[in-house]
Amino acid sequence: MYMRSGVLRYEEIHCLWPPDRILARLRETRPDVLRGFPGTLSWLAGQLADSDRELIRPHFITTDSEMMTMAMRERIRQGFRAPVIDFYDSHEFNMIAWECPSRGLYQVSEATVIAEVVRDGRPAGPGEEGEFVGTALHSWAMPFLRFRLGDLVTRGASGSILARIQGRVADRFVLPDGRSIHPYTLVNPLLNQAPWLRQYQLIQERADRIRVKLVPVPDRHPEPEAIAALGRILASASGVGVGVDVEMVDRIWPAPNGKFRPYYRA
Fold first, then answer.
1. Which of 12, 30, 69, 145 is most solvent-facing, going by the fewest CB within 10 Å?
2. CA-CA distance, 199 to 168, in Å (whole number)?
3. Domains of the chain with bracketed CATH
4. Measured between alpha carbons, how far apart are the two ends of the chain, in Å?
5. Cα angle value 177/179/182 (rounded, 5°)
6. With the C-alpha atoms ordered 47, 49, 51, 56, is the resulting torsion angle positive or negative?
7. How confident is the model over 3-62, as pLDDT tens digits?
8. Mind listing the pLDDT tens digit for each residue in 106-155?
9. What span, in angstroms and rounded, lies between the C-alpha atoms of 252 and 232?
C-alpha cells in the first residue's frame, strides 16, 4: 500500500553484486536513506569517487545485522558524508534496540522485547558485559522466552538501555592456557598502530595461531618492518604461546550470505 501510494518507496540492491554495479544503481536511485550491512557499506565507501558523492547523497545511513566496528562507522560516515545510525536486530526478535544519534547508546524496543543482560548466571549491573537474553512479545506462533541469543552486550544505566553491542559469544578466542579473549583485545592495538588500515579480519586458525588479514588504504602500503612490528604487538596482546601471522591482501570478501565477519574462529 505504501509503495503504491509513493510513500516509503524502497529498492533492494544485492550486497554481493560487484561494486561498479551497486554504485551504478545508487547513482540512478539517489536514495534519501541508505541501509545495509556495515561491512558492505564500509567497503563501498572506499570505492566512491567525488562524482559519486555528488549524486549519492543520503540524509542518513542505517546499519544492522552484523557487528560494526568504529573503523567501519568512520569510513561509512566520511565516505558517504552522512550520519550513521546502527540498529540491533535478529531473526528471533526482529528489532531489539536502536542507537541514539546524540548519545551513542542503544534504546531497547520495550514494546516488542523484554531484554536481559546476564553475567555468570546473574543479572549484569550497569556497565557490565554479559550475554543478551530476550523474550519476544509478539511471537505468537513460536514464542521465544528468555532465549539466549549468543550475543555479548554491555548493559547501560537502566534495563532499557544497552551501552554497547560486542558481537557473538562464539567469536571469543579460546587460548592454549584456557583463557578466552574477545577479539577487541587485538582490534584496539591494531587500530592504534595502523593508521594506514582500511579493512581487517582476525581468524583464529588454532588455539595458538591467529591470522590477521589487512587491507591498506590505497597508496599507503606499510613497510615490511612496520608489518613485522605490528605482528609482534598483536602477539604480545594475545598472550604467551600465541603466534600471529599478518597477511596483506587486496580485499576481504564477505561470507556467502553477504555479511562481513571482522573476526571468527576457523
1. 12
2. 20
3. 19-82 (3.40.50), 87-170 (2.30.38), 172-265 (3.30.300.30)
4. 45
5. 140
6. positive
7. 676 677 888 888 768 778 999 999 999 999 999 988 789 888 988 999 999 999 999 999
8. 999 999 999 999 999 999 999 999 999 999 999 888 889 999 988 889 99
9. 22
Residue found by looking up cell 547501560 in the block: 156
C-alpha cell read off for 54:
555528488
Other beta carbons less than 10 A from residue 221's beta carbon:
12
